[in-house]
Every structure is written in C-alpha cells, then in structure tokens.
Write a structure and sequence with these properties.
The protein is of the alpha+beta class. Among the domains are: 158 residues, Cupredoxins -  blue copper proteins (Immunoglobulin-like), CATH 2.60.40; 194 residues, Cupredoxins -  blue copper proteins (Immunoglobulin-like, Sandwich), CATH 2.60.40.420; 221 residues, Sandwich (Immunoglobulin-like), CATH 2.60.40. It starts with 15 loop residues before the first helix and ends with a helix. One of its GO terms (cellular component) is plasma membrane.
Length: 927
C-alpha cells in the first residue's frame, strides 16, 4: 500500500528490443504529426489540375473557409521592403493598402479551381464570419440538372449562415473560362472570388492548333479595388454623399498603388503579378473581369497582339486585335505569341468610366524566360495616361465601350462570329421568331426609393442635387425584392394559398393591371418573367442613357444566350423608339452565327438583343453585374418551365423564411383574420400580449384589458375565393400565380387549436414568452423550436446545411444530406419553421414526459445547430415513442462533432495532438 502511494519516479529497466520498439513507435508518431502540420499547397497542385484526357473524369473536392481578414497583416512581416515577405503564407499585400477583407482560405484571390469537362466538383463552404451569411455562385456554369447549386441566396438556396457550412455538388457541364464568387452582398468586391477553368482535351479543342500552352498560371483575374470595404463604400455613397469610384485595379490580387518610403527616398511598391513565357511559343491566356463598379477594363500588352478565340466559355472565329475591353462578369480567351526579343514587357490594365476620376489602373509583367527579373520593362512606366489608345498604335479593339457597328476600328460583341458547328441548324434560339419577346428598359430614375430617400424627410427633390441626390437603377421601373425564402426550393409556398406574408410576384404587365404607374411611384416586388420550357426568349435590353454616360453588363444564370444585335443610337433614347424600329424591321439580327455568351454589355443610349433557348428548368437570376446596381434591385428572375418541370428539391435541403407572423406556431393566418375580428370588436383598445393570448382570451370570452373584459368576438367572416391574375401582353410573360384562399376553420376549431397551443406552451414551466430568461441559468442549453414536416430527429454531427464528408455519391446530380439524419418531407407537408428560444434542462424533461399522452399539435424542442433538419410537430400515439427516444439525445454541446478546419487548398490541415502526445510519452519512457 505504501509503495502505491509513493510520489516519486522510478527509472524503468528496458531491454534493447523494447527500446527499439519504442523508438519505432515514436518515429511513426512523429511522422503522423508532421503530416498534420499545415503545408502551403502551390497553385495548380490540386490533383484535378491536370492535362485533360478523353473519357477521363474525376471527383474534385475542395474546402472553402470564408472569413473576415485583413491586408498587410502581421503575417506580412517586412513586406514590401523585403519582397519575399509579401509571398509568405497568409500575407495578402494586395496593392499595399491596409483594409478589411472577406477571403477564402486566406488567399486573394481564393483557390483556383482547374478541372476537366465532366468532372464533379464538391466544394464545402465553411462560413467563419461571425456576422455575415455567404454563398458561392459558379459564374458561367449552367447547372443543368443541379439548379439548387447555383448559389444565389433567396433564388436557389438559403444563404450559408455564420458558423455553418454548405456543400455544393455539381458537374462541370460546360467548358471554358469561368470564375466563382460570393453572391452575397459586396463580398465579391472584398476578395471572396477565384478562378474556375473547365478544360477539354487539347485534341478536342477546335482552337487547339492555335496555341502551344494552356497553363493554370496564365489566368488573369482582374477587378476594380477600393481602399475601404465595399459595404462601407456602398453606404457612404447612397446615404452620405460619398462617391462610387475605384481607387485602383488588382491583377490576380496584386497591385502597386501605395508607395512606401525607403532610406534613399525612392518609393517601394508591393509586388506586381508576373507571367512567364518562353520565346517562340504561343500561350492561351484566360482573362476574367470580376469587377463590381462601373469600371470596364482595357487590356493590352506592349509590342504584342491578342488573338481572341473565346468569350464566356464559347469559341468564336479568331480575330487579332491590339486591345480588348472587358466588363464585369465577362471572360475572354486570347492567344499571345512570344515572338519578341527576350525581355520584360508591360501588360497594362486601363480603367474606364468610373475608374477615370481616380485614374485607376494597374500593370503586370510579361517576362520572357531568361530576362532579368530585376529590370523593369522598357517603355513608359505604368500610369493612367499610358494605355493602348495613347501609345501611337491605331490598331483594332474588340468589345469597345459605348460604340456601335459604325466604328471601323472596333468590333462589338455582336459582330463576333461563332464557329461553324454552332449555327442556326444546331441552336433552336436562332429560329426566325422567338416564342416570347421581352423589352427591358432601364436607366437611373428620380424616385423616392425608401432605401435611399424618404419623402417628406429627405426625399430626392429635397436634398441638394450634388452629392446627396442619388438616382435608382431599375428594370422596367421595377426594383427586384426577393422573398424571405428561396424561390426554387420553396416553390411549394408559392403554390400554397396566399397570405399577407406571401411574396408579391410581379412584372410590368401585372403592375399595370393593378393600376400602378411605376414611372411616377417607386415599385418594388419579386420581378419574375415566365418562359415555357423549351421555348425561345428574346430579350431586348434598352439603355435609355438619360443620366450619366454609363454602361451596364448583364449576366444570365443557368443559360448562355446568343448576342444577335447590338447598336448605339445616340446619347439618349426611349424604349418606344426601339420598339418602333423593331416593328419597322430596322433592327437587323444575326441569326446565322452570332456568338454565345452569358454576360454582355449594352451601349449607353443603345440596345442589345439576346436570344435564349430556355431548356434548363428553374428560377434563374438575370441582373446587372455592377454590385451597387444589383443591390438596389437592378435585376429580375426568369422562371423557366412550370414547377413540375423542375428537379425535385434535394432531400434535407436547408430551409429559411420569415417568422414575423408566428408561422412557426402553425397558425399563419390567425394574425390576419382573428386580429381583424378582434380589432373590429374591441375598437381602438390596446391589445396586451401577442396573438396567442388574443386568440385564447377573445375566442373564450376571457380576454381582459386591465379590469375590463373584452366582448365576445364577432363571427368569423366566410371567405370567398380570391384569385390574383395578371394580363399577359403579347410581348411579356405574366408571372403572378393564380391562388385561392382556403376557407377558414370554424370558431370551435379555432378555440380548440388555441387551447392546444396554450397547453403545450404552458407544459414547459420555465418557458417565459418572448424572453431569453430561464428558471435555472446554470442548467440551460440554447435550443431550437421547430415546426416542420418530418418526425425524425437526428444527430448534429454537422451544422446548418453541412453535408457529411463523402455523403455525396459521385454518380448523383445533386448533393443530399446524410440519410441517417434527415428524411424527405411528405408531399403537401408544411415547410420547416424555426424559432430560437432558451429552456432549462428540467423544461426539456417535462416536454419529454408529456410527449406520449398528447395527440394534438405540440412543439419539439431541438438543436439550433441543425435547422436544416425537418421535424414533425403533429404527434400521434404511434409516433410518440420515436419522438421520446429522439428527445432523450444528449445536449447539442455534448453531441456536436469537432469542426474540421482542413484547408484543402490553403494547406491548413488539422493538427492531431494524439501522435504528438504519444511521441512525448514514448520519449520520456525511453529515457
């Protein structure tokens, strides 16, 4: 007994074989620990970044960790004075300005996805931002069969909430130069973006003979850059009279705008991007314009020409030019021949329009192998005054700014030609007459937009014209306002009987039928245009050009379109003039070989005509790609096909919505009908408590106000079918759904339901209505009150929208949740609803004890970490045992699995402490 209680170390005696075994175990543990140390993975080293071979595809998995970060952080050490420090892991130097960022895997730009046509991409987006939701759009991928993966909040999905994750799973179904970016707020402008290239085998590329190399490091991702966060810039512009101009331009996240002092007085700059080529070879460069302001960018390379071979992923007949203008959202492929003497050459990016006042520009270096890396290129150094238009060359330019077909020195996007195989015979979009024609006019309008101006306080006519009078960009005088739930996966709610909280679907025709004149009042609603599946939609975009010499690039999700006409008519026009020209046959259309694109500009004071073969069912956003404009509603939604044509909602797909009307209690209409009855009966008397108390008291004749009893309610009014329709014009597809209100329940039924609600709520003693207080603060767990359609309760190993690792079969077309933890809602079941509350452990036990005896609607208390799971609130005796068993699960904090912080591309692997501890123990024992 004494020996067992001795508090001293004894030196063990070991045999040589035992020591050898321990040494081997220690070495193995060390190796395991080394593998867990974070490693920086070089760009392009992902296994899917490979030469593409016919018939060979892969499943490409990535982890995107989205977080708030900062440029010129402590990770940069002595950058830029020590240039190598600027390339340290986690150092984002950008253009030298210190500012807040939103980045993926602490990279700017984020991970570069280089895949082959037909590869499956599985990208798990982890949102580490504490206050912002996020999403990712795969710009250029059409998502045939996987519309839920398009990444547009409240159109195709719920946004990914803070501290949660969502896995995107889709096939790279159309080849070309694309990119990915956040589609939430201004996060794209703050750095949440990256390249996405889908290649085909070179032997299958019709342009394959035109180039020798197509390298991942020859992607050119450019965008306009501000030295303050984009959201702050947006708010300052619209509310405080600040401007909306860019400070600089970034090329692959690099620039040299800020000058740092040095001991000898010469400025020190952050590093510029460098592209390396070998003399005598031809290189395919892929240009992506990810801009967010009204800043077209003009590309030129000193002493070199550009052979344009593709745009937005679609091949065109090659055309050789001296410069190229790109607009936000566009991509262009050019072939550059390294046929000049071995040296360094400037690759210049010149900002136009709103980049002019701040003289925003940037340059990279085209470096021939063997050139001195310490020598700057010859010729004028980068400046805003030096670009292709002022270097003495008068060469050809493609995709010019605000030019039409009359300029002999330019080639508009509509004047490019598709390759012969993409002709009228192979594309239904090029048939002589479209099935649906839609005129979309836009400009900046002087309306009292309540988001910017408030009539009577600081209306647009009340504030000084400069700088506080801010005009609103709209499409057909309508601002898009999306509902609180995504249209595509929540389309059953659009089919449900309408309530005052239902989204107001509209278009120009339906608003006119309601007697609204949106040219005189501000109109905001869910602007939807309907196209039959397989039909051909012709969109005539008209830039009226009344205010500003602006330019708007438009992007269509889910489809490519044909650019069949583009022209500038003057400094300003109106839509009726364009309609008259069209009626007179004076708008010629190229229906033979027009180029295919998904993003196109419209000349100021001109028009662009698009043809779309609507073969991809779903809800698809069509919007201006200037971030400040789309945030104000310069967008609409194209509904392709009917709901039954759209792919089924993936099992367990995340849900979201607006719970302001207590829909989470299952009585969505009571706020309207019962409240109206009570208000009529009680006159102007104030109402105490929320509507649950009002239902109980009024319907049972016991509602009191102070010491006065409320009168009994008047009989509930009988409902009559209410139908909302819109007149469909010959040129516009109506979108407002026809719905009918269901008859209300009887008074007795209302009273019974209200009593059931009260009994359920009161069965939790420590629950305090609309309060976060609990009876025992030391024994509480934050839980989720859920009203849903599925009685299965699952573990919470993953969080909101997370699909477990390897849960997605590579043969499936959509991502699905773990079948052990989520089941599909039955047809016609109510949607998942949620409400955060706090209850004590004792309260949860009370709810468990009563679950077996209750057969009416009651509320399951479950985990807020999994609001994507569906739960059932309608308990029957046969369901009760399963519910009780489910509710006895451990608390969320006990069951929550540790988060995996593996950064697949940034190289931040999870560090396992077990082998390290084992190593230390073995070493100590060996000694």
């Amino acid at each position: 007994m004494g020996r067992n209680t001795e508090n001293r170390w004894r030196t063990p005696r070991w045999s040589s074989s035992s020591l050898a075994l321990l040494a081997a175990l220690a070495a193995l543990a060390v190796l395991q620990g080394v593998r867990a140390v974070p490693q920086q993975v070089p760009l392009g080293s992902h296994p899917c970044s490979r030469p593409c071979a016919p018939g060979r595809t892969m499943t490409c998995r990535y982890d995107f960790h989205v977080e708030n970060y900062h440029s010129m952080s402590k990770a940069c050490y002595s950058c830029p004075w020590n240039a190598t420090d600027c390339a340290r892991p986690d150092c984002i130097a950008a253009d030298g300005a210190s500012r807040a960022l939103v980045v993926v895997n602490r990279m700017l730009p984020g991970p570069s996805l280089q895949v082959c046509l037909g590869d499956r991409l599985e990208v798990t987006v982890h949102n580490h931002m504490p206050e912002q939701s996020t999403s990712v759009h795969w710009h250029g991928l059409q998502q045939h069969g996987t519309p839920y993966m398009d990444g547009v909040p409240f159109v195709t999905q719920c946004p990914v909430q803070p501290h949660s994750a969502f896995r995107y799973s889709f096939r790279a179904d159309n080849a070309g130069t694309h990119f990915w970016h956040s589609h939430t707020g201004c996060q794209r402008a703050d750095g949440a973006l990256g390249m996405l290239t889908v290649r085909v085998p070179k032997v299958e590329d019709p342009h394959g003979p035109l180039y020798d190399e197509d390298l991942p490091e020859h992607g050119i991702l450019v965008w306009d850059w501000t030295h303050t966060p984009a959201a702050s810039k947006f708010l300052a512009h619209h509310h405080a009279g600040d401007d909306n101009k860019a400070d600089s331009v970034l090329i692959n996240g690099k620039g040299a705008a800020r000058r740092f002092p040095s001991p000898d007085g010469s400025p020190v700059l952050t590093p510029r991007e460098v592209f390396t080529v070998t003399k005598g070879l031809r290189y395919r460069f892929r240009l992506i314009n990810a801009g967010f302001l009204n800043c077209p960018l003009e590309l030129s390379i000193d002493n070199h020409t550009l052979l344009v071979v593709a745009s937005d992923g679609a091949d065109v007949k090659p055309v050789r030019v001296d410069s190229l203008v790109s607009y936000a959202g566009e991509r262009w492929d050019v072939v550059v021949e390294a046929d000049q003497p071995v040296a360094n050459y400037w690759l210049r990016m010149h900002g136009l329009l709103d980049c002019g006042p701040r003289r925003a520009h940037e340059a990279a270096v085209l470096r021939y192998a063997g050139a001195d890396p310490n020598t700057e290129p010859a010729g004028p150094p980068p400046s805003y005054d030096v670009h292709s238009g002022t270097t003495g060359r008068t060469g050809l330019q493609v995709n010019p700014l605000n030019r039409g077909s009359a300029d002999p020195n330019t080639i508009t996007a509509a004047e490019l030609q598709a390759l012969p195989e993409a002709t009228q015979l192979s594309d239904p979009a090029l048939k002589p007459e479209a099935d649906v024609q839609l005129f979309v006019s836009y400009d900046f309008y002087a309306v009292d937009n309540p988001h910017i101006h408030r009539a009577g306080l600081y209306g647009i006519s009340q504030v000084p014209s400069s700088p506080h009078r801010v005009f609103t960009p709209q499409l057909n005088h309508i601002s898009l306002s999306l509902p609180a739930f995504p249209l595509l996966p929540g389309r059953d709610r659009l089919d449900a009987p309408r309530t005052p909280t239902s989204p107001q679907l509209c278009n120009e025709t339906s608003l006119a039928a309601q007697g609204r004149d949106c040219t005189k009042e501000y109109c905001e609603c869910t602007h939807v245009v309907r196209v039959p599946l397989g039909g051909v939609l012709e969109i005539v975009l008209v830039d009226q050009g009344v205010r500003y010499d602006a330019n708007h690039p438009f992007h269509l999700h889910g489809h490519a379109f044909r650019v069949v006409a583009l022209e500038r008519l003057g400094s300003s026009i109106n839509v009726s003039e364009v309609q008259r020209l069209d009626a007179e046959g004076r708008i010629p259309r190229n229906l033979r070989d027009p180029p295919a694109k998904d993003t196109v500009t419209v000349p100021d004071g001109g028009y662009t005509v698009l043809r779309v073969h609507a073969d991809n069912p779903g809800y698809w956003l069509f919007h201006c790609h200037i971030e400040f404009h789309v945030e104000l509603g310069m967008a609409l939604v194209v509904k392709v096909g009917e709901h039954e044509d759209m792919p089924p909602v993936p099992k367990g797909f995340p849900q979201c919505g607006d719970w302001s009307n207590n829909n989470w209690l299952g009585d969505a209409d009571k706020d309207v009908d019962v409240d109206e009855v009570l208000d009529a009966a009680l006159g102007d008397k104030p109402v105490v408590g929320n509507h649950i108390g009002r239902d109980l008291g009024a319907l049972q004749g016991a509602l009191t106000f102070g010491d006065k009893a409320g009168p009994p309610p008047a009989p509930l009014p009988s409902s009559t079918p209410r139908t909302t329709t819109s007149t469909t014009a010959a040129t516009t597809a109506a979108t407002t759904p026809t719905t009918t209100m269901q008859p209300r329940a009887t008074e007795a039924t209302e009273a019974t339901e209200a009593t059931d609600i009260a009994e359920t709520m009161m069965s939790t003693p420590s629950y305090k209505e609309d309060s976060t207080e609990v009876a025992d603060a030391d024994d509480t767990t934050e839980l989720l009150l859920v009203h849903g359609a599925d009685g299965t309760l699952a573990d919470d190993a993953s969080r909101y929208g997370v699909l477990e690792e390897d849960a997605v079969d590579s043969t499936t077309e959509v991502a699905s949740a773990d079948e052990a933890s989520a089941t599909e809602a039955p047809t016609g079941a109510r949607h998942v609803s949620e409400f955060i509350m706090r209850v004590s452990s004792s309260s949860r036990r009370v709810a468990q004890s009563e679950a077996v005896s209750v057969s009416h609607e009651r509320w399951d208390i479950s985990d807020p970490a999994r609001p994507d799971l569906q739960y059932n609130v309608l308990e029957t005796p046969s369901q009760a045992p399963r519910q009780v068993a489910a509710l006895t699960a451990s608390s969320p904090r006990e069951a929550r699995a540790p988060r995996d912080h593996a950064y697949a591309l940034a190289g931040r692997g999870p560090v396992s402490w077990t082998p390290l501890v084992a190593t230390l123990v073995c070493l100590v024992l060996a000694l």
